[in-house]
Amino acid sequence: MHISLLLMQRLHQVKNSWFAMKSCLLSPQMGTYQFRCSYIFPISQHYGVAGLRTLRKHSFHGSGHILSFWNYSLQGELSECNFIGINRNLTVSGKSFVQAFPSNLQSYLQLMRIDRPIGVWLVFLPCAWSISLAAPGGQLPDAKMLTLFALGSFFMRGAGCIINDMWDKDFDSKVARTKDRPLASGKLTRFKALCFLSIPLSISLSILLTFNMNTIILGVCSMIPCILYPLMKRVTYWPQAFLGLTQNWGILIAWSAICGYLDWPCLTLYLSSLLWTMTYDTVYSHQDKEDDTVIGVKSTAIKFGDSTKTWLMSFTGLISSGLLSTGYLCAQTWPYYVGVALFTTHLVHQIYSVDLNNPESCGQKFRSNRDLGLVFWLLIMAANLIKSDKKDAGMEDEIQDSDQMLWSH
User: Fold this and answer.
1) Which of 43-47, 133-137, 180-184, 317-321 has the lowest average pLDDT?
2) Residue 254 contacts residue 398 (beta carbons within 8 Å)
3) H-type helices in 135-189, by residue range?
4) Measured in whole angstroms, how far is the alpha carbon of residue 51 from the centre of its chain?
5) Coil, strand or helix: which one is 36?
6) How far apart are CA 179 and CA 297, in angstroms?
7) CA 76, CA 66: separation in Å to the nearest integer?
8) pTM given for the model
9) Residue 408 burial class via C-beta count within 10 angstroms: exposed 0-12, middle 13-18, buried 19 and up
């Protein structure tokens, strides 16, 4: 049985209450920490809500083990924790990370959506696929390149969120899900957001300048769709297509950074990922469709309406075809095709099972795409490890001989 920290907070009402810990793994679920119980710890009355205002550190002792907590908020959410003498497995949520900072900085971190890291994953994973597919046969992807693109994904996603909120301040204030964002709620002004925008953009540029000239040009060009994307929901029912165009640009940058040019495998991967983004973001946008209809914001959720699942199934077929083409062009081995099969099966199940009129269901299916992307990435790496250099060289010669190269030095 799961017991949340919120329930822990309530146990102060019963003097000498006890609870049992069954495991020591904390995990964030919908922004709330939950854990299983097996070791017995007493909770005394003085650990109550009033004490949370000033509580800096407290340890629960039992069976020779110590469980320590730091920095509670009034709601009982955990900023930092540590296990002593028992399993130290720990997962920290973005929300708790932001709350660990001084209150005057939290609005800026929320502006970058650091409290919602799912977006960073969805930007980074296509980059990781591209880096892994471009790696030489029999090798893992370059760790330095993955690190640079992870950092780039983090800061460019944050910059994109700032740009989006600057454009959408008036719209966001009228939508239930977004009305508490820093700009929409008035915690920050557009000018402060613009000044803060220089930080993630400067860091992203410094990363970009470590690559070759073709890659630098591609990276600079990515700012065009990044700036224009928020405007698309005002003029077209297909803003999700522009989001896919923007969010997966890292595929092209990563391939160019490794190979020095663009060719067909990265383009088929890019188009597949674009359609993947359209699929999960259409599901996501169903959360806001009622508010969007009222305020005049356009989306594929509104465009597709009752036919949404039919459209998304069609996208899934195209995604599968594109990923299969990418595997063929890269001379990939059988684990890659297992990954494509799992990817397609998950998307079909996701589309079939989602309740598009239930925001919670839409949000859950949207978040599941992170795990889907991670599993596919692991299988890409496995496939590349068992791919021989001869296959790689043969495919490269075939591409060059047939003039498939689109951009070279």
Assistant:
1) 43-47
2) no
3) 143-172
4) 35
5) strand
6) 15
7) 19
8) 0.75
9) exposed
